[in-house]
């Protein structure tokens, strides 16, 4: 019986859902955490259909330490396996230039994207270290951790993802002696609900054309593309990779902003 268990946050939608379906096909047991419990449960059912030996979906606010710990404990008990993997894909973005951004919105973005990643990593690490089990944690950073978005107004999001990138490097060094690897994917523009948060339906086609013109590969990613990068980092093929940021952004970070 395959005892690999991966915990995936933001598992009801987008990259998290795509990662869950790929994990199911790869034979992982899967625990999906999402604020939207119904979507998490639906993804779990789909993951079982893809081949997961077992999968559950739980409602969970990743900013709530007690709920995160309880959810991971529930996954271990119900799926009868220690969590050997994590994909922390839960995220939010609230735009606004700094002088207009409310402190409440600033805190919310950091709490979900950075503190949420820390809390779920902490819960999984406690099980791994407590059972002397090697594992692989994959967090989600962003090109915004390294460069400012041309559209602007992403100070909270960029700060949160910069924190995720730094957290990855620190955890990788701290937990390498335990046989635990920690990395991040760095997705570029991707067709997910988060990509279009705050953009009206009628404006999406126009913005999609603008983004395509800015991305060297000339398109947005399908959610499965960064999810495949996450599955690579979970698996044995990446056994000597830790503390890395795997960029899967269509060439965004490679491109200069000046056209002559």
From TrEMBL:
Q: Which Gene3D superfamilies match?
A: NAD(P)-binding Rossmann-like Domain
CDD domains in the record? SDR_c
Q: Name one Pfam family in it.
A: adh_short_C2
Using the record's annotation, list all stretches that form the Ketoreductase domain: 4-199
Family of the protein in this entry: Belongs to the short-chain dehydrogenases/reductases (SDR) family.
PANTHER family named among the record's database cross-references? SHORT-CHAIN DEHYDROGENASES/REDUCTASES FAMILY MEMBER
State the name under which the record lists this protein: SDR family oxidoreductase
| Origin species | Saccharopolyspora taberi
